[in-house]
């Protein structure tokens, strides 16, 4: 096998899966706060175990990810002050903003799964998902990247 998961990474993926399951169950059961909180705790712990504590800290505290971090943490806050619908919406946006950079890798893995890969390779879905992710979650170019072409006479 080209890439095998360590035991720690398997545990992290399991916690992420249970976190998503409990969050989904909490939404289905009319935004049950207990299930939503449990799902968030499991998901955050799973991400930290999968990526590593330092990498997770850097992911949430980097300047490029401030929108995602702030919206995710505001979503947690709203969840705990009994506004679960607003909290879930902010958390979903925060997750997409934080992990939107991983979308090409996730898409490449999803293409390899037999049934899911066949479904998501339809031209309508490919153009829609690419346009949506590039519009909503594209990161602005850094200052040194914007100035790179400033002195080029052709541009």
Automatic annotation (TrEMBL):
GO biological process: endoplasmic reticulum to Golgi vesicle-mediated transport; retrograde transport, endosome to Golgi
Chain ranges passing through the membrane: 12-31, 37-60, 72-103, 115-138
Pfam families assigned: Got1
Protein name: Vesicle transport protein GOT1
InterPro entries listed in its UniProt record: Got1, Vesicle_transpt_Got1/SFT2
Keywords in alphabetical order: Golgi apparatus, Membrane, Transmembrane, Transmembrane helix
Organism placement in taxonomy: Eukaryota, Viridiplantae, Streptophyta, Embryophyta, Tracheophyta
Membrane-protein topology: Multi-pass membrane protein
Primary residence: Golgi
Superkingdom of the source species: Eukaryota
UniProt record similarity statement: Belongs to the GOT1 family.
Localization of this protein: Golgi apparatus membrane
GO cellular component, one term: cytosol
């Amino acid at each position: 096998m080209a890439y095998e998961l360590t035991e720690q990474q398997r545990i992290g993926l399991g916690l992420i899966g249970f976190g998503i399951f409990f969050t989904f169950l909490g939404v289905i059961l009319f935004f049950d706060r207990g299930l939503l909180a449990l799902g968030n705790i499991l998901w955050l712990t799973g991400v930290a175990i999968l990526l590593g504590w330092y990498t997770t800290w850097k992911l949430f505290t980097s300047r490029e990810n401030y929108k995602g971090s702030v919206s995710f943490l505001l979503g947690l806050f709203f969840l705990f002050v009994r506004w679960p619908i607003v909290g879930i919406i902010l958390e979903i946006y925060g997750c997409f903003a934080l992990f939107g950079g991983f979308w090409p890798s996730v898409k490449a893995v999803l293409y390899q799964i037999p049934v899911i890969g066949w479904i998501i390779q339809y031209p309508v879905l490919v153009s829609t998902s690419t346009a949506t992710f590039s519009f909503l979650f594209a990161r602005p170019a850094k200052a040194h990247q914007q100035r790179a072409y400033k002195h080029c006479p052709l541009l």
